[in-house]
Specification:
single chain, alpha+beta, two-stranded antiparallel ribbon, 3 helices
């Protein structure tokens, strides 16, 4: 089931999320709903607080090749264990900040540990777009948005645009 995506500014997007104590059917349903919502948007990542659930859960799929099978990742309680000194700059966007993009510098490679829906601990290294995406989504779990990496003027400009968008959506 598709879920509505919160639009910035929303206080829930600035909250630190609680760890998920265990894997439940409710959590599996939330993960499936988040994947459906993300693919429909369309996006490459989505964090639980973006659908109003303040739990440490993210989904992502950075497979861009049209001919490739989807490669959905579901991460419960993800944490970055190590990150490279080398950085990458990507033009990031966010489903909670529609149609706004800005260049963000992040570590080029990260090692991440998370619990899967199978209840097992997983670890993997990510680079390129996958590394940027996983860092962006984990930031959401800590109440941080990609615009928080920008200068105050640019951040305020984007926030004003989002306030205006929300007003227009409320009228529609």
């Amino acid at each position: 089931m598709k879920r509505p995506i919160l639009i910035h500014p929303d206080p829930r997007l600035k909250k630190v999320c609680a760890p998920v104590p265990d894997i439940t059917d409710e959590l599996r349903t939330l993960a499936a709903d988040m994947l459906e919502t993300m693919y429909d948007a369309p996006g490459i990542g989505l964090a639980a607080p973006q659908v109003g659930v303040l739990s440490r859960l993210i989904v992502m799929d950075c497979e861009k090749d049209e001919d490739a099978e989807p490669a959905p990742q579901v991460m419960v309680n993800p944490e970055i264990l190590a990150s490279s000194d080398e950085t990458n700059v990507y033009e990031e966007g966010c489903l909670s900040i529609p149609e706004q993009f800005a260049e963000v510098t992040r570590p080029a490679e990260v090692e991440v540990r998370w619990m899967g829906l199978d209840g097992e601990e997983h670890r993997a290294g990510f680079d390129g777009l996958w590394a940027t995406c996983v860092q962006h989504e984990i930031d959401h779990l800590d109440g941080k948005l990609f615009i928080d990496y920008l200068g105050a003027m640019k951040r305020q400009l984007i926030t004003r645009k989002m306030v205006k968008l929300k007003r227009e959506q409320a009228r529609a």
